[in-house]
Write a structure and sequence with these properties.
The complex is a heterodimer of chains A (863) and B (110).
Chain A: H1 9-18, H2 24-42, H3 44-58, H4 71-92, H5 94-123, E1 134-142, E2 147-150, E3 152-153, H6 157-164, E4 168-174, E5 178-184, E6 187-196, H7 200-203, E7 208-210, E8 222-226, H8 227-234, E9 243-246, E10 250-258, E11 271-274, H9 275-281, E12 293-299, H10 305-312, H11 315-319, E13 327-333, H12 334-337, E14 343-344, E15 347-348, H13 353-380, H14 382-394, H15 399-436, H16 446-471, H17 476-481, H18 488-524, E16 534-538, H19 546-558, E17 562-568, E18 578-579, E19 582-583, E20 595-600, H20 604-607, E21 612-615, H21 622-625, E22 628-632, H22 633-639, E23 648-651, E24 654-662, E25 677-681, E26 688-693, H23 698-712, E27 720-722, H24 723-730, H25 732-766, H26 768-776, H27 781-815, H28 826-853, H29 856-860
Helix pairs in contact in A: 1-3, 2-3, 4-15, 5-13, 5-15, 5-16, 5-25, 13-16, 13-18, 13-25, 15-16, 18-25, 18-27, 18-28, 19-23, 25-28, 27-28
Chain B: H1 8-20, H2 26-36, H3 43-56, E1 59-66, E2 74-80, H4 82-101, H5 104-109
Classes of the chains: A alpha+beta (863), B alpha+beta (110).
């Protein structure tokens, strides 16, 4: 043959791409015939050019293949076909379909709930426009023995920082939030708020609805109200410029109104009064030795935070000429504070982020367990579907289309489950909000929709990939001849996955038991005082006057069903306030350990039922016992006093005599050791009135108290709470984790069992011939079902063996965070193992016995 | 009778297919038209027209042997169908009728 020149490639490919398939050979033939002729007659270049022109002229409607013919529609057809086949399959194998649906939808519902929760946790305090440059000043306090980290700083901190550090744009301090009543003529409202520096509304992004934003907190006698408070005082009137009475004693002019603080903020308040007001009235706040105020800093863009931390470390020491040498300030990003608030020895050590991680892990576990069910059931079912695959392959189905079929089947199932899961979430959300104390809503935000789709496809692909790639691989001949050797590897994989499921379930069960027991322990363990039925009332308005206070107290104790009443500055739950101003013989001058300060009225120790182990309690006579002090055992041990009674110590430069020693009691959570504390009789500053009520008569007693309060302190509402509830709040996080994890563990176990149920029914079906033969050979129903049950629950046994040590390690490390904790007992693990095995046995046993009872003829007659 | 509206180029193609009688495929048809009617024909226009006529049922196609001159591509031979022939006859008659009806004066006067 002659040496042929080929036409230019590019137009040729173009032709092949656009031309209708059935026209192509003829068109190409024409073109090539002309091309060869032209090469001979006119030369290659001319021929090439003409070829290109011809191709371009062919690019016209009649020649271009239509979109109908291209791949898009073929994929649509394929998908439609896959869906049809999927639905038929669902319908045919209803049991496994329902198991999958149930497992996946509950699993997905859990994942969605956790997703909503995590998303909400991550959004807390993230709404401030200055977010990136917003920091909070903390102080590491060296207590001799160890370092504690606090958010409280001295009164002059903010102005000082702004003057001394050019990289600071703005710094503000606030007081703690305190309850107060606001009055407008006859109207009053009980609310809470705090004092803050002028820049407070610039530093944070609180929304101001009326008032001049630049002059909100300039005048010391002004106040800024929340919309809620403004509305309840002024109704629809404009409050700006009006005057209200703070606590009924101080006139303040309203200069602005802000939108109610969203729940997504950790700083909560309903009114703000200028810090200068507090400063002028409280001389103690004007020096560097107090630590009472929260300080927030806005840095200039690009400030070097590390360098600042280095500089500010010595700041308090410089300001106090080395006196307050134990306090080392530093800053931490305000946005990250909510999730990372725990410090150990001055080093960041987690916080709520641990719960976020924990629940994310649980969500992943549950999703994994549900997906494993799906994978197991579909690979197990493979044998049933192998014929379908064989036939499809024989008539020319490519592997790709089979993979698409299986994947679309799993994604379709996942989508149906997702719809059901959304329904479940919608139904459960109120309950979930109640448990978590959130206001989550199923709002279809972009994040949620993206989340749903990501979960849908990741889970769909995860669950569908194994059957899709595994099943489509078989050779049709082998499949149709039935000579398929189900590999042992495959069976092993399936068993391994079941083991994994149950291992996860066991870890979850043990965790639930341990958390529950620890919570029970903290609730029931003897605290060293009796927290039952103690009502804590706030001292407001006129009651602050000490004479009125004692009249009120004695009137309270006369109310029927009030067992005892007394006053204190300490609410018995958590750190309220302390001092290192106590000196005893032999005290190290550098020791800054704080003693918890419990100023109280007579009868307080008795009312709280705190045991005195040495000496005596305070007597009824104020004059004889004023200047006397009672320490707890921890304090005595700390001070190293051999014979404490009668020993004199110095407090606030004043000599006081020890008259008694109280048995240690838990005023902090069980996370912490009992710290040194003391009781001291005090006339002022006992801003709580506490009353012990008879159990069962709380309601009418509180009504009587409210009446009395109304008479003696008109205009002020009685604000009260129960000590029990306060105590619960110390373990808020644990209570939530306990409640939630028990739900999630239950769901995990149910889903695992669903999977085991499906798998065992399948496995018995496959072994029906074996069962038949065994029966024909004389095996008894009992020994047969025993054997089957053992075979099927073997995986669960192994899971128990693997799961228990893992759960031991996890439980142990969690308990380490409590100073007072339960011992890990054998029965926790035995119970978890037993529960799992029992449920698994029940799941499998019924089926095994049913299979063993069947007449062997039924299995053996076919074939 | 005449449900088939065909254009001028289509008519030419159909005549040419008839003329080539048994040897009508892309290249020959194009050559023939270019020789006889003296007009340039692009492969694109020709191919589209052929397919359209085929779809209308006026032409039929027949795949021939593969040929070296076409580098292994088969020739696709076209021929007139019965309907196609009728349409040509019909057109011819219509034209003749119109021609006959034309007064001699009109053409002479030109």
């Amino acid at each position: 043959m002659m040496n042929q020149t080929n036409p230019p490639k590019l137009p040729w490919y173009f032709l092949k791409w656009f031309c209708k398939r059935e026209y192509l050979p003829d068109v190409e033939g024409d073109l090539l015939q002309y091309y060869d002729r032209r090469v001979k007659d006119l030369g290659i270049r001319k021929a090439n050019w003409m070829f290109t022109r011809d191709v371009l002229l062919l690019f016209r409607p009649g020649m271009i293949r239509s979109i109908n013919e291209s791949q898009k529609l073929r994929i649509m057809d394929l998908l439609l076909h896959s869906f049809k086949v999927s639905f038929r399959n669902f319908n045919k194998y209803r049991a496994s379909f329902l198991i999958n649906l149930l497992g996946l939808s509950t699993g997905l519902a859990c994942v969605l709930l956790i997703f909503l929760w995590v998303q909400d946790e991550l959004s807390i305090d993230q709404f401030h426009a200055n977010g990136d440059n917003l920091y909070q000043l903390l102080e590491n306090v060296d207590q001799g023995g160890g370092m504690i980290t606090r958010t409280t700083t001295a009164g002059p901190t903010s102005p000082g920082l702004m003057e001394d550090f050019p990289e600071i744009e703005l710094a503000v301090s606030t007081t703690w939030d305190e309850s107060a009543s606001l009055f407008l003529g006859e109207k009053s409202v009980a609310t809470f708020g705090m004092y803050a520096h002028e820049g407070f509304f610039k530093l944070f992004s609180w929304e101001i609805t009326s008032g001049n934003p630049n002059q909100l907190l300039t005048d010391p006698s002004s106040i800024v109200l929340s919309e809620k408070v403004a509305k309840s005082l002024f109704g629809d009137e404009n409050p700006i410029g009006k005057t209200i009475e703070y606590q009924g004693e101080e006139s303040l002019k309203v200069t602005g109104v802000f939108k109610d603080i969203p729940k997504k903020s950790t700083i909560q308040f309903e009114f703000i009064i200028p810090f200068s007001n507090f400063w002028n009235n409280n001389e103690w706040s004007q020096n560097w030795y107090n630590t009472a105020f929260s300080t927030y800093i806005l840095f200039k863009e690009g400030a070097d935070i590390d360098a600042f931390n280095e500089k500010v470390n010595d700041y308090v020491r410089e300001k106090t000429e080395g006196n307050a040498s134990h306090r080392s300030p530093f800053v931490a990003s305000f946005g990250e504070r909510y999730l990372n608030s725990k410090y150990e020895n001055g080093v960041i050590a987690g916080g709520r982020i641990e719960y976020v991680q924990l629940f994310s892990a649980i969500a992943l576990f549950i999703l994994l367990i549900a997906c494993i069910n799906f994978m197991n059931l579909s690979t197990a079912r493979a044998s049933r579907r192998l014929k379908e695959i064989g036939v499809k392959k024989t008539v020319g189905a490519r592997r790709r289309s089979l993979i698409i079929q299986f994947l679309s089947e799993s994604i379709l199932l996942m989508a149906i489950s997702m719809v059901i899961a959304l329904l479940i979430v919608w139904l459960l959300l109120p309950q979930f909000n109640f448990i978590t104390d959130k206001t989550l809503a199923l709002a279809f935000s972009t994040e949620l929709i993206t989340g749903i789709f990501i979960i849908l496809f990741v889970a769909g692909l995860l669950a569908g990939s194994y059957p899709a790639f595994y099943l489509s691989k078989f050779k049709p001949v082998a499949v149709l001849k039935g000579a398929l050797n189900t590999s042992t590897g495959e069976a092993w994989a399936r068993k391994g996955l079941v083991t994994l499921q149950f291992t996860l379930s066991i870890v979850l069960i043990v965790s639930v038991i341990v958390v529950f027991e620890q919570i029970q322990y903290t609730q029931n363990e003897n605290l060293g005082y009796d927290k039952g039925n103690v009502l804590i009332m706030n001292v407001t308005g006129g009651l602050a006057d000490s004479l009125k206070y004692s009249t009120f107290l004695s009137e309270v104790s006369k109310i029927p069903n009030v067992v005892a009443a007394s006053g204190s500055n300490h609410d018995m739950t958590g750190h309220n306030g302390g001092t290192y101003g106590i000196f005893w013989p032999g005290k190290d001058p550098n020791d800054r350990t704080e003693f918890e300060r419990m100023f109280c009225k007579q009868g307080f120790i008795e009312m709280m039922d705190i045991e005195i182990v040495e000496g005596r309690s305070f007597t009824e006579d104020f004059m004889t016992d004023w200047g006397k002090i009672i320490f707890n055992e921890a304090a005595i041990t700390y001070m190293g006093l051999e014979d404490p009674i009668g020993t004199k110590v110095t407090m606030f430069n004043q000599e006081v005599e020890i008259v008694g020693v109280a048995k240690d009691f838990h005023f902090n959570s069980f996370h912490e050791e009992v710290k040194p504390a003391f009781f001291y009789l005090e006339d002022d500053d006992t801003w709580y009135i506490m009353a012990k009520l008879t159990a069962g008569a709380e309601k009418e007693t509180i009504l009587a108290l409210e009446d009395l309060h109304q008479q003696m302190n008109p205009g002020f509402d009685l604000t009260y709470r129960f000590l029990d509830d306060d105590y619960q709040e110390l373990y808020e996080a644990e209570n939530r984790v306990s409640a939630l994890s028990s739900y999630f563990a239950t769901i995990a176990v149910i889903i695992s069992c669903l999977g085991l149920f499906g798998l065992s029914s399948f496995s018995l079906e496959r072994r029906s011939k074996e069962i038949g033969i065994r029966k024909v050979l004389g095996s008894s129903e009992f020994s047969l079902s025993q054997r089957l049950v053992f075979d099927l629950t073997k995986m669960v046994f192994i899971a128990v063996l693997i799961g228990l040590p893992i759960s031991y390690l996890i439980a142990d490390s969690w308990l380490q965070s409590f100073a007072f904790r339960i011992q890990l007992e054998i029965w926790f693990f035995a119970a978890a193992g037993f529960i799992t095995l029992a449920i698994a046995l029940l799941t499998v046993g019924y089926q095994a016995v049913k299979a063993a009872k069947l007449n062997p003829v039924q299995f053996l007659k076919d074939e | 009778m005449s449900d088939y509206k065909i254009g001028e180029f289509e008519e030419i193609v159909m005549y040419t297919v008839g003329i080539l009688h048994g040897n009508a495929y892309g290249v020959t048809i194009k050559d023939e038209i270019e020789n006889r009617v003296n007009r340039k024909v692009s492969i694109g226009a020709l191919q589209v027209t052929l397919r359209r006529l085929e779809k209308k049922g006026l032409l039929s196609s027949d795949q021939g042997e593969t040929e070296d001159s076409r580098r292994g591509r088969p020739k696709l031979f076209f021929s007139l169908t019965a309907t196609g022939k009728n349409v040509l006859v019909n057109i011819r008659e219509n034209r003749n009728q119109l021609w006959d009806a034309l007064p001699k004066v009109v053409i002479d006067l030109r």
